[in-house]
Amino acid sequence: ERITRERVRQIENDCLKKIRTHGDFTLLEPSLQRLQLFFEENGGAVRETRIAGSLFGVPLGDREGTNTALFLLKLSGLANRYKDDESFHARWYLSTIKQDVFEPALSAFVVTLAKDTKVVARDLFLEKFRGHLANTGIVVDNQKALLSYAGLSKYLDENPWGEWGHVVSPL
């Protein structure tokens, strides 16, 4: 007999609920606070591949360490995961971030950069990005958050000289 995806999801949610209500769950409090602070410092949205390394020092490619960090994130209930798609890398958003408002604004910024194939210094890129977001009603004054947001897009990247641009630019 087969088990459906829905049943797997139900079992997973039941197990997470049991772990959260167990007495030893309080031992995770320092890690959960660190996780909350990490997300707040990064504007509430982080590319999945950067979570384990940035937060716990897990080397890129270390599946066990990455899976542990992602399990802790899932267990915390602090953020929601969004799968990799055509425009964005797999990412996590704090539940206070409106992903359906933010991602169209980021996509529109990508379109404006695609028209200009020049790469620009990080500070100028961030200034343009901040201005674009402000024009769409999203106010961001944290440089770390802007870099985290830019890292969500598959179409924005930084070259070895610290210049940013659209991936079709001569990075």
Task: Give a concise summary.
With 171 residues, this protein is mainly alpha-helical. It has 7 helices and 6 strands, in the order H-H-E-H-H-E-E-H-E-H-H-E-E. The protein has a 3-stranded antiparallel beta sheet with strand order 1-3-2.
Structure keywords:
3-stranded antiparallel sheet, 54% helix, elongated
Written overview of the protein:
This protein is mainly alpha-helical. 54% of the residues lie in helices and 12% in strands. The chain is built from 7 helices and 6 strands. It has helices at 5-21, 29-41, 48-56, 63-76, 99-115, 122-135, 143-150, and strands spanning 45-47, 79-82, 91-94, 120-121, 156-158, 163-166. The strands form 2 sheets. It has a 3-stranded antiparallel sheet. A 3-stranded antiparallel sheet has the order 4-6-5. A hairpin with an 8-residue loop joins strand 2 (79-82) and strand 3 (91-94). Helix 3 crosses helix 4.
